[in-house]
């Protein structure tokens, strides 16, 4: 993950991607738990 000092836009993009990845992972985990 690039540092915020090198590029602000890259930092924002990485943060958004990390948030989306976390949301997808939580969604998959909850659906699996509910499926069982």
Automatic annotation (TrEMBL):
Listed name of the protein: Mediator of RNA polymerase II transcription subunit 34
